[in-house]
Amino acid sequence: MTASRAQIWLAAARPRTLPAAAAPVVIGCALAVGHGALALIPSLAALVAALLIQIGTNFANDYYDFIKGTDTHTRIGPTRATQAGLVTPTEMKRATYIVFTLALLVGCYLVWRTGWPIALIGVLSIAFGLLYTAGPFPLGYNGLGDIFVLVFFGPVAVAGTYYVNTLAWGGEAIVAGLMPGLFSVGILTINNLRDIEDDRVAGKRTLAVRFGRKFARIEYLLCVIAPHGLALGLALFEQRRLALVSLAVLIPTLPALRQVWSSDDGPMLNSMLAATGRLLILHAVIFSIGWVLM
User: Which of 2, 6, 186, 192 is most buried, by CB atoms within 10 Å?
Assistant: First the structure.
C-alpha cells in the first residue's frame, strides 16, 4: 500500500526522536512550578518551538545526509524520505526552512515575553540544528554531535524553559538539564552504533566510528545510568524526595542496556532507539511529578 503524503512527512519528522525535544520542557516547567512561577502560554510556546526545531533538524539531516551520500540503499535504519525518493531534495530543503521559520515565529512571542536571552537560545538552536549536517564542518560528521545534543537538548532547553516561566536563571535547571541531555545522547549513540559501517564508508566520523563499538556501548551505558544519579543528587539536595521515584525507571532501563550491549542487529537497535526515547520521556515525567509534589 502506498503511503500518503501526510504519512511520508510524518515519518520524515521522526516522531520517535521528539521526546528529546519535549522532555526538557517538561522538566523546566516542573522546576518553575517548584518556585510557584508556571506561565502556561509561554510554556506551551516553548514546547511548540522545541518540537519545531527538532523536526527542522530532522528534515535538514534527511536532506544533507542524502546530498553528502551518507544515506544510501544499504542503510539499515528507518527509511529516509529523500534517499528513498519519497520526496525530492528540493521539497525536503524547502520543508526544512519552512519548519525553522515557524519555530522563529513562535520564538518571536517568547522573545517579546522574555527578552533577548531567549532570542539567543533560539537562533543558536536553529543554527546548530542546521550545522549538525550542513556546512563545511558538519558537527555530526566530525564527532561533535554528541556535545551538541547534550548541551542543546539538556541544560539549554531546560534552563531556557525555566527562564520563560520565571524570568530568572537557576542553577538546578542547568544540573537537571543534564538528565534529558544524557538520554538524548544515548538515542544518538544507538543511531551511530547502528550506522557505524555505512558512516565509516561515507566518511562520517562519529564517536562510534572513531573509537569503535565498545566505546559506543560504554557511552550508552553512561548516558542511561548517569541521569538517575543526577536525579538522586538533586532530589536530596533540594529536599524534594518524591522525585526519587524516578529511580524506578532504572527497571526498564536495564533490559534496554543489555540488548544494546549484546547485539549489533539493525532492527533490534532501531527498537532500542525508540525504547530509549520512551525511557527519556518516562524519566522526565516521573521526575517532574515527584519534584512538583515534593
Answer: 186
